[in-house]
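discrete fold record:
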Amino acid sequence: MSAYTLRQHIIFDMDDTLIHCNKYFEMILSRFTDIMLGWFQEYRLTGKEIRDKQIEIDVAGVLKSGFASKHFPLSLIETYHYFSRLIGRPIQLAEENHLMELGLSVYEQEIEPYPGMVETLEVLTRQGHELILYTGGEQAIQQRKIEQMKLAAYFQERIYIRQHKNQEALEQILSSRHFDRDNTWMIGNSLRTDIIPALAAGINTIYIKLPNEWVYNVVELKNKPSTAMYTVSSLEEVPDIIAQSISVKPNTNKRTL
């Protein structure tokens, strides 16, 4: 790192920032919808009705209890219960068990990195920046992903797993060690859990905007950022943005876009 390059603290989200996640849930939800349409075929339910109700239940549950592993399969069962009660179709234990197994299977999928994950982390590490991993979910599930992707090689002990991912959780991390907030970045795909809490904490952000984003992550950015905020479409754009930001203002990254 040259004398003119400031070392940055770069906090990465994991799911749908470094590794694929939502596409596995979409795959299971597609199977769930097909199963429900089969079970309820004589009642003329539509796939949209089923998906809309599952999304409603899913988002409400995450807002209440955070990223708990049983929440997703339970949202399938609750959707099944809703339509069973609405139509008057008997609830069957075997069908409930099938949906629980289906929902839990999302956590058994082979983990796949986003394009450029390794290259991005390698470049930032070589440049001397400090990388931090901050992910939402249950310890065992998230740790399995971290181990499969060998992410500890880049983040070492600087790995934080939280069931609730919000402003309070991020502030606890920022307060747990020395962070120069002018030179700290949050990189993530969620406006709700990554970008808005980071802007509130006074750190810079790079928002990776994905197509077909999970509804829970789609919220309105109400206030104009007082720190740097960039929107990109791929992880591979991150190193150049940080390098350009440093070169433009070598003594501070704090500015309004």
